[in-house]
Amino acid sequence: MQRLGIIKFLLPGLILLYNCQGVFSQRKETRVQYAAQISEVDKKIGRGAQRLLGDVVFTHEGSKMYCDSAYFYSKTNSLDAYNNIYINQGDTVFLYGDFLHYDGKSRLAEVTGRQVKLIDDETILTTTRLDYNLQNSLGYYMQYAHVVNQENTLESNIGYYYAKKETFHFSDSVKVTTPDYTIYSDTLKYHTKTGIATFLGPTDMIGDSSHIYCEKGWYDSKNEIAELEDNAWADNMKQLVKGDYILYNKASGEGFARHNVEITDKEKDIILTGNIARYNDSTEYAYMTDSAQFIQFSETDTLFLHADSLKTFPDTSGQKVLQAFKNARFYRQNVQGLSDSIVYTFVDSIARLYGNPVLWREQNQISAETIDLITKNQLIDKMILKRDAFISSKEDDTASFNQIKGKDMVCFFENSQLVKIEVDGNGQTIYYAKEDDEIVGVNKVECSRMIMHFKDNDVTHINFYQNPKGVLYPLDQAPENELILKGFEWKEALRPKNRYDIFK
After folding, report:
1. What global pTM score does this model have?
2. Are the CB atoms for 269 and 238 separated by under 8 Å?
3. pLDDT by residue (tens digit) across 468-480?
4. Taking a C-beta distance cutoff of 8 angstroms, is the pair 83, 98 a contact?
5. 429, 408, 409, 430: which is closest to 421 by C-alpha?
6. HSE-up of 53 (CA within 13 Å, CB side)?
């Protein structure tokens, strides 16, 4: 497969060279001119062959070729030159070597030697054989060569140099060394003036603390900007970014990515996914939208959260914060929820839900104007419900609901199990009393403050404070209008049942 790739890469150049030779054969051929200190006919080589010695200079269509000695073949308008080869084309391209064969018909110069050098402005190419067409200023090599250009060094086993376009095409074990990266590529195009390397195959860019990969794209070494496509990713050891398309500015640390984007924070074990992202390596800022998802891994219960847009950044103390805006929904095995917006601070593991928040914990539905969900060791430790707090649960398979209502509430958990609820202000509750798992009546109580104790999600006892008022109805005598507290709404249909429901 690799050999096929090389053939595909070489084919356009070979076709171009063939076509050029075809054109040259049709044009009127000019004769190669020469000057030398000594000129003699050498019949041993062939008819019309001349041996030239001493400061030999050939001139042909504006190009000059220098050497110590040479054989000139007038019949074929070609020559073989030896030692101290020097070719000058238009005072811009200079070619050096030990041996030269030149064909005046095709204008193809084949230069070999221990160190063949092509110099064009600030670019120096070094190899052991270079074929250079003086007509179209195209040079190519089929063995190892390295190119030095300003601060960059390029190496490959196969390459073409288009002098008029100041462009190299490299293939087979390509290596580019810049001040910031070492680039390894299958196939690469490089513009000597702009310093832009275009990737035409699998490419790795490795820096001191970063590794970038793509299969198509370009890198501007002067402005430190990279555009990456096809299985692209960028890893700075703290953060890994993947996407179908990535635009990255190393100088500013800013990046943009689209389609199948993943941003992984390796230190926090979190991932942002979506289709449009902006991020900054320097500030550790990341923004995601279009099917945005936040994933926090855990050995016991991974969190999956979706919103219209997600943003992560360090706060003033350097601690990471997550903001989820508009239509936020999340799923964990032990708790699910939704709200308009969510803010999560990693340092104290507090998630604050704004805008009609609703949580589901086992059979309990929890709502308030704002909810603070506090975790420890990735287990629920406490919930703080502010303003219009409401907790309800369905009683088995019946149409009956246990309900707790108050101005504010605090729910306490042990090992992620609900053990206590404190209600502060305008407390009201409806709960179904049981004996031996059988419902025996309905309690309705009002008081300013109450504390409810739980075991295995069932109420064990309740403490009422400040003038409690209550009534216990036998189950068959409870009035229907007394069994629902004002503001009750059962929203089980909105509850995410699995990680994929957060996108509904």
Report:
1. 0.80
2. no
3. 888 888 877 878 8
4. yes
5. 409
6. 6
Amino acid identity of residue 355, one-letter, is G
Do residues 252 and 246 lie in contact, with contact meaning Cβ atoms separated by under 8 Å?
A: no
Closest listed residue to residue 180, CA positions, set 205, 200, 204, 198: 205
In this structure, the strands spanning 285-289 and 239-249 are unpaired
What pLDDT, on a 0 to 100 scale, did the predictor assign at position 436? 75
Query: Which of the four pLDDT bands, split at 50, 70 and 90, describes residue 433?
Result: confident
Say how many residues make up the chain: 504
Question: DSSP secondary-structure letter at 398?
Answer: S
| Cα 381 → chain centroid | 36
Contact 171, 156 (CB under 8 A): yes
Is the pLDDT at 332 greater than 70, yes or no? Answer: yes
Q: What is the pLDDT of residues 158-167, one digit of tens each?
A: 999 999 999 9
User: How far is 166 from 155, CA to CA, in rounded Å?
Assistant: 17
Which H or E run includes 18?
Answer: helix 2-26
CB neighbourhood size of 62 (10 A): 10
Euclidean distance between CA atoms 155 and 126, whole angstroms: 10
pLDDT at 20 over 80: no
* Fold exhibited by the domain 56-135: lipopolysaccharide transport protein A fold (2.60.450)
Identify the residue whose tokens are 């739980």: 454
Domain positions in the chain are: 56-135
